[in-house]
Write a structure and sequence with these properties.
With 103 residues, the chain is mainly alpha-helical. The chain is built from five helices and two strands. Strands 1-2 form a two-stranded parallel ribbon. α3 links the parallel β1 and β2.
């Protein structure tokens, strides 16, 4: 099992027992964790469903892994995704980071 699948499986199992203090789901729901993701990842809708869009934030790895052109393309791809709601895209593309860092 790859690490992403294992992580999301654990989130799912925690959600089944309820968002109690000490479970991973509790920390996602509390806003105390910020998970970096790329907006064009195919698994993003599932991660949002399991963890909530409020737990995820766009992370491009710019400038050391991608150049400016690639980062802009990823942002564009995220904006154009038909499988995410506008509010989810807004959180992932900056809304969550603003809340998390109190900007």
């Amino acid at each position: 099992m790859n690490s992403k699948k294992a992580f999301l499986t654990r989130c799912h199992l925690s959600a089944k027992v309820g968002a109690r203090s000490g479970t991973s789901f509790f920390y996602f729901a509390s806003g105390q964790i910020l998970i970096g993701c790329e907006g064009n990842e195919w698994i993003l809708p599932y991660a949002i469903k399991q963890c909530g869009a409020d737990a995820l934030a766009y992370a491009s790895d710019y400038p050391h892994e991608v150049d400016l052109v690639a980062a802009k393309e990823m942002i564009h791809d995220t904006v154009e995704r038909p499988d995410l709601a506008h509010a989810e895209k807004a959180l992932v593309l900056g809304g969550k980071a603003k809340k998390f860092f109190r900007l």
